[in-house]
Amino acid sequence: MLAIARGAYDEIVHRGYEGGEEEVCGVLAGKHGEESRVSDVFAVENVAEAPRIRYAMDPEALLATIDRVEADGMEVVGFYHSHPTGPPHPSETDAERATWPGYSYAICALDGYPYLGSWRWRGDEFERETVVVEA
């Protein structure tokens, strides 16, 4: 399960809309576990060659963000990115590039009403998890 604070959820959706036709991405932060809790999100620049259909986090910015998360007393819970035109689930490329087993990969699909789903990377496949938005 992934519990996400309302403010963090709203930030992901707003950033997705601000990104327009390009995917946005970042880090989910809070308390990591089988029932993870996201209290904060941190945007990381998408440096993919084709940002309309891919995301790639700037490696230096990602490391700096992880350091900041830990310095603030939180844990990395996982990562998020948007799919401006869908689909509302991980793509084949998302699975090929996933590298953090046991962590959440949230996707915000914006092709209609915003939808935020999350999947745990199990090392060889994604497993869908329940998302709960908390006040």
Automatic annotation (TrEMBL):
Q: Name one GO cellular component term.
A: proteasome complex
Pfam families named in the record: Prok-JAB
* InterPro entries xrefs: JAB_dom_prok, JAMM/MPN+_dom, Metalloprotease_DSAMP, MPN, VirAsm_ModProt
Q: Which stretches are transmembrane?
A: none
The domain of life for this entry's organism is Archaea
The Gene Ontology biological process annotation of the record reads: proteolysis
Write out the entry's keywords from A to Z.
Hydrolase, Metal-binding, Metalloprotease, Plasmid, Protease, Proteasome, Zinc
Q: Where is the MPN domain?
A: 2-125
Q: Which GO terms describe its molecular function?
A: metalloexopeptidase activity; zinc ion binding
Protein name per UniProt: Proteasome lid subunit RPN8/RPN11, contains Jab1/MPN metalloenzyme (JAMM) motif
Which species does the entry assign this protein to?
Halobellus limi
